[in-house]
Structure to design on (294 residues):
């Protein structure tokens, strides 16, 4: 449905996208994850044909609906008037505009607010109206730029449910977010973008199966010092994060780690106040992928 090969986008000397490759299959939700400035909007703007790539091939096979990161409306119009305008611009007949608008207002939960001015809508309501606009032409593919990120938990859930429903009815979705838990809830596959490069890609099951490893959280009485550096020299240590007096050690070989970590801690002679093992979360995987790329 969507195929991107060797996608490069530069602004002057600044290479914002550094040779991206990915595919979005028919009827899947593809979650595009990355920090602010990673290049998500740039990628979506290329997919919508709003901007041209510097290099690479992009094919989007199907009709598209697009929801920008911060959709703008004529705030003096009501929700119903705005949808009517969209229908008119798109060349629908009067009766079709009325039917489609009513359907969409119902779908996105704005029926009772249809006659209120958009200027008085909450952020969540504006986002849902933007979603209705994206759906107006009954597209096969939705391109959604951070559709839920600025919303409160309730607004987020409503938006994610709408996206899921679109997929359940046969649609294909490409959506960006910097909130992993949102993507974890609805995405079939995830691509992690960091500074213009894809650092990890796969289905949630694949990523979890391959990358979920134990993490030891060890809390010390005093500042940690040089211990992380000492541990990073060990082949069974995957990575280390330090927050205050807590050191989290990501493990690549759990069998060796079980004995070796305790031995090294004992040698280190620093008072330990707690020692716990947990499974890494998707958040840890994300942090690790981004850090390794850096
Ligand atoms: N027109 C432009 N001219 C120059 N640089 C740009 C332009 N548009 C984007 N950039 C730069 O490209 C990089 C990626 O921006 P982009 O908006 O794609 O990131 P993003 O992942 O969508 O982040 P955000 O969530 O903050 O929008 C940023 O460093 C940005 O400053």
């Amino acid at each position: 449905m969507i195929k991107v090969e060797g996608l490069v986008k530069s602004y002057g000397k600044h290479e914002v996208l550094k040779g991206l490759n990915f595919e979005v299959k028919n009827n899947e939700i593809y979650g595009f994850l990355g920090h602010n400035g990673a290049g998500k909007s740039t990628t979506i703007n290329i997919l919508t044909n709003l901007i041209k790539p510097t290099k690479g091939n992009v094919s989007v096979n199907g009709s598209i609906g697009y929801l920008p990161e911060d959709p703008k409306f004529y705030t003096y119009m009501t929700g119903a008037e705005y949808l009517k305008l969209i229908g008119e611009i798109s060349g629908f007949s009067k009766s079709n505009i009325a039917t489609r608008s009513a359907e969409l207002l119902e779908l996105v939960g704005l029926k009772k607010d249809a006659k209120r001015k958009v200027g008085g809508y909450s952020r969540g309501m504006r986002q849902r109206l933007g979603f209705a606009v994206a759906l107006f032409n009954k597209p096969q593919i939705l391109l959604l730029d951070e559709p839920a990120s600025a919303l409160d938990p309730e607004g987020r859930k409503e938006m994610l449910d709408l996206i899921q429903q679109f997929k359940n009815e046969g649609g294909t979705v490409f959506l960006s977010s910097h909130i992993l838990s949102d993507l974890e809830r609805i995405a079939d596959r995830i691509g992690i973008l960091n500074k213009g490069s894809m650092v990890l890609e796969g289905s949630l099951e694949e990523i979890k199966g391959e990358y979920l490893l134990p993490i030891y959280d060890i809390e010390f009485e005093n500042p940690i010092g040089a211990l992380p550096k000492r541990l990073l020299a060990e082949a069974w240590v995957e990575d280390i994060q330090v927050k205050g007096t807590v050191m989290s050690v990501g493990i690549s070989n759990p069998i060796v780690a079980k004995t070796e970590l305790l031995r090294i801690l004992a040698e280190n002679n620093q008072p330990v106040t707690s020692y716990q093992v947990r499974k890494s979360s998707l958040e840890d995987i994300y942090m690790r992928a981004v850090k390794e790329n850096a």
Q: What stands out?
A: The chain has a mean pLDDT of 92. The chain is about 35% helix and 30% strand. Residues 11, 14, 16, 34, 36-42, 69, 146 surround adenosine-5'-triphosphate (CB under 6 Å). The first helix runs from residue 40 to 47.
